[in-house]
Amino acid sequence: MRFDIAVVGSGLAALVATRSLQKAGRQPVLIWPGLSSLYFVYATIDVLGYRDATATEPVDNPRAAIGELIAAHPDHVYARAGLEALTAGTALALDWLREAGFSWRGGLDRNVVLPTATGTPKPSCLIPDSMAGGDLGRDDPVIFCGFEGYEDFVPELAASNLSRTWGHAPGSVRGLRIRPPRFAPGRLFTSIDLARSFEDVAFRREVADRVRTSIATNGDRVRIGVPAVLGLTHVADTHARFEEEVGHPVFEIPTLPPSVLALRLFDRLRKHLQETGIELIWAAPAHAAEVSDGRCHRIQLKSPGREQAVEARAYVLALEDTADGAMRAGVHTIQDPFFHRVLARSDVPTERTLESLFKPQPFAQVGYRITDRLQPADDDGRPLADNVFVAGGAIAGYDPSGTKSRGGMAIATGYRAAQEAMAA
Amino acid sequence: MISDDLDLITDTVEEQAPVEACTKCTACNTVCPVARSTEIFRGPKYLGPESERYRDQHEATVTAGLDLCSGCKLCEVTCPSQVSIQEYIRRAQNKGAREKGRTLRDWMLGHTRLLSAFGSMTAPLANFGNRNPVVRLAMEKLVGIHRKRPLPRYQWLTFERWFKRRRQQAATLTLPRKERTVAYFYGCWVNYNERRLGEMVVHILERNGVNVIVPKQQCCGIPAVVNSNIDLARTYGVENVRRLSTLPAGVDIIASSTSCGLMLKHDYSHLLDIPGAEPVGSRTYDICEYLWMLHEAGDLDLTFEPLDTRVLYHAPCHLKSHGMGYPATRLLRLIPGVHLEEVDEGCCGISGTFGVKVEKYDLSMKIGSRLFEAVKAAGSDSVLADCETCRMQVEHGAGARSSHPVEILARAYGYR
Predict the structure, then answer these.
(1) Which of A246, A277, B120, B309 fits a 20 to 30 Å CA distance from A113?
(2) B132 touches chain A (CB under 8 A)
């Protein structure tokens, strides 16, 4: 199969790269290796929440902080992609969200601090409108509202944690539990079950009634934080109606995986690409780049029945992360599936991980060395192929977890890789 | 996956991961059309890899709700770890049916070819019965076929006989020698229900200089697979593999039914584990996939008549499993005046014989409701789908006319 430009991946980097190519009038194909696990952890688009993984003070102005970061660390992924790519890519992403029917807000000049499901404050950059009410820069009291049977959001825990770091008066944070209608008592369910139920008007009204009745005695100026389960597909309406019915501002809080916010986001963006004429190849993991004379001539897809070659002018390998199976881990080595290069070696596999989940993990640093044009490079820094570009988590040293920069790095590298692919 | 033998992992034709590769990420549950539509269904993650860990060949199969899996395979399409979720469910369904026995209805639906051959022989009577409310009520009560489900119309003249007759007529003419030859796996649908589709496939291929032969063939076996009768499916599959293996080298196999094609390409060598199936699968192509290949080789006749038509395209679930993208949309965009829009609202809900059954009809219509609404909202009365049962469901649920994409191509070639 021959295409103009082939993008491989299923995360935000792949989507932004594909959209950038589409907007520039090119005909990309998106080769989708299955839902990446990151599909479930995205909620907001974080650009830079902390200057480094150990910082405790959140970044206020991500654009300015990234400028400083680039100056201080010319090898940082942001430095390689460039501030321009971040700026242009973010503008493209925001336009796209609007066109696809989302209401999002935010910009690169300001972070907003929102409560997480455990009640800790977390800086984010671009956020859906349904989360905006959680802004901890405002001082109106917060009620965390959970649902009996949904064990992934514990309102009392969130309230107790948040009240330690935030709160202007005693009692300004509290937790509340509502028994959702229809679910038999004692039944446990997931964020997806709840989100599907919320799309039913009668269910939503009944829950709103129960919430309103429960907080009526406690007076007026409060906002209500609920786990992000207000509808699985199109949210704007469900959130606005629910807020109206409850009679108080309501904001969504990202949950443990599966993240309904991420499902909403990526399902819609993927569909929007398809509706606007972009072809998707499902169920065919890509591998094996064939390179000669410095150019990649084809990659292979593992399709049922046989391998299928995809030939394109350029390739964007937007493999989101080690978590989505982009790399092949052996006992001692980690290799990439395209060039079959050993990207990391360890005497014992446990060297790849640290016991504390909250420390930067060595495995997360594994990836392709890249050139200044985001081409995968050999040990001497020469491109493995002139027309292949890497975006997202397959880049070595790409570890957005501690700095809260997952979305921004995906956008910057996805956008930049697309620009380079067009020029290749 | 931990292995130092990287060639094993990266260079196999297809990656299939063992049950341990399931990370319980729940991606499958979020896309499962059945889980979306009923709270009773516990989802592919639980019924597939999670239960599989505890299944024992020597114990009875007890997982409840197994029969609600419709077999769309979207779970496998979505799995980031390439776990064959649906195959685990299929095997367990089959084992359960073997232990508990099958209903007459499921036995019949598994023997689609037999049923269709009978329907075709008695076409006027069968078609009358299938549309008669009294007969349908009786069928619902006695057999368990939902009375509201429109059943396909049978044709007295089968594709097989049409093709034979045509060959006899053509034998008197001297045909130009053609470079390419394909064997057409027409499937039961074309043979007994929609001969015209087969005629169009032959016409399009021949117009493009491809010689078409029709080898003797059996049902592909998918109706048996979905009715928990893997043994029967294997019997069919073994027969097909035996016959198709004797085709001369260089003859590719073409299927115009998405699911028949997927059986030949994939399920024969995986789910059914039929010896010799891989070489058959590796030369099997979906009709649109094959035509696109011709186009890329510069051999597709592009002298189309402009059509000026707006059509919607619904990608069948099993088409996504082919891992070949959407060749039909690429082909149709070559025709001047064809305005093609894709509706991606997921599964149509019928899943072969699933939506025919009395206890599953309502669920099947609920699953398809998003697609029906999208089709109605798009205001188009023509929906293209590569799969025959998708077409039945769209016509029934959305009240739109539905046809195989090659019909547009045939029209553009002036085929009436």
Answers:
(1) A246
(2) no
Segments in chain B below pLDDT 70: 1-16, 61-63, 171-178
Min CA distance, B358 vs chain A (Å)?
25
Taking contacts as CB-CB distances below 8 angstroms, the residues of chain B near A332 are: 4
In 3D space, the residue among B335, B308, B316 whose CA is nearest the CA of residue B410 turns out to be B335
List pLDDT tens digits, range A101-141.
999 999 999 999 999 999 999 999 999 999 999 999 998 99
Q: What is the pLDDT of residue A97?
A: 96
In chain B, the domains with their CATH numbers are 6-100 (1.10.1060.10), 104-142 (no CATH), 159-296 (1.20.1050), 309-412 (3.40.50)
Instruction: Please report the ipTM that was assigned to this predicted complex.
Output: 0.90
- For residue A311, what is the nearest residue in chain B, using CA coordinates? B296
**Chain B, window 209-268: residues with a beta carbon less than 8 angstroms from a chain A beta carbon:** 262, 264-266
Residue A320 is predicted with a pLDDT of 66
Question: For position B8, what pLDDT does the model report?
Answer: 42
Give tens-digit pLDDT for A235-279. Answer: 668 999 999 999 999 999 999 888 899 989 888 999 999 999 999
Q: How far apart are the first and last CA of chain A?
A: 20
Which B-chain residues 142-181 have CB contacts (< 8 A) with chain A? none
Which residues of chain B from 44 to 83 reach within 8 Å of chain A, CB to CB?
A: 76-82
CATH fold for domain A2-102+265-423: FAD/NAD(P)-binding domain (3.50.50)
Contact assignment for B4 to A324 by CB distance below 8 Å: no
* Cα B182 from Cα A395, distance rounded (Å): 45
